[in-house]
């Protein structure tokens, strides 16, 4: 049931008595991995985002200092994936359902006495949902610290291993995701079916971009026939192992910082 998570760090393996008796509960870090079940091109399984979240978290928790209390909740496999729903197999929650789920999980964690809650999101289509739910939880419970974080935004070397074009235009099922999946679940990667497909380029004079500061809303079929937005053909397991280790190390530092983090006291 714990997948890549070390059993001693898997929250559901605790008894209610152990949760009740846990010391310094206000600083215990509770982490909710959030993924998605959605298409990732012809070469990757639907589980990519969820697999990356739990794979990275498991490796991070293996390396985390034993004296820092941090626990993983079961992965939330479904996310808001309607940008991919024209591709068979994608399962999506609405914004309202995902928000309500996060809110209710967070409230349960708060009710148990915990005050540090991490949303470890690995799906690029829902960071805004995480951010809004986190803010609403903190507004409702002023002593509840909620951290809406994206798996890939911790310090890591991933972009150094990609081509310049992939580093700036690869968005989905490209080199980075394919490589890290070769390190996490290699038996599920069909590398012989990997393709390279980038979205149409905007004119040089246009300020509008597919992603970035001035984006337009889009769904995947608008900009990709294969479901890939990037180059999956350059992926490798060796590269994926380096990416996995680097991202996991970044998460070790983030969990340490969250454990130590305190809100400033009102003057």
């Amino acid at each position: 049931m714990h997948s890549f998570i070390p059993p001693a760090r898997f929250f559901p393996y605790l008894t209610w008595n152990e949760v009740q008796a846990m010391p310094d509960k206000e600083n215990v870090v509770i982490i909710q991995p959030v993924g998605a079940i959605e298409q990732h091109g012809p070469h990757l399984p639907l589980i990519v985002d969820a697999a990356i979240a739990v794979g990275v978290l498991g490796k991070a928790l293996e390396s985390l200092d034993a004296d820092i209390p941090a626990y993983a909740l079961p992965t939330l496999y479904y996310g808001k994936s309607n940008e991919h729903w024209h591709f068979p197999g994608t399962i999506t929650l609405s914004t309202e359902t995902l928000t309500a789920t996060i809110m209710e999980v967070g409230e349960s964690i708060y009710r148990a006495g915990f005050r540090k809650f991490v949303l470890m999101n690995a799906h690029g289509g829902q960071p805004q949902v995480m951010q809004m739910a986190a803010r609403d939880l903190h507004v409702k419970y002023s002593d509840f610290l909620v951290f809406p974080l994206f798996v890939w935004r911790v310090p890591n070397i991933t972009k150094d291993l990609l081509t310049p074009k992939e580093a700036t235009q690869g968005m989905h099922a490209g080199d980075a995701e394919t490589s890290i999946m070769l390190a996490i679940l290699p038996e599920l990667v069909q590398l012989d079916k990997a393709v390279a497909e980038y979205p149409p380029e905007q004119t040089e004079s246009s300020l509008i971009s597919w992603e970035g500061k001035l984006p337009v809303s889009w769904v995947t079929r608008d900009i990709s026939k294969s479901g890939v937005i990037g180059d999956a053909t350059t992926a490798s397991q060796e590269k994926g192992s380096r990416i996995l280790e680097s991202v996991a190390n970044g998460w070790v530092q983030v969990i340490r910082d969250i454990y130590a983090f305190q809100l400033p006291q009102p003057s």
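The chain has eight helices and six strands. The beta strands are 29-34, 70-72, 116-121, 145-150, 196-197, 230-231.
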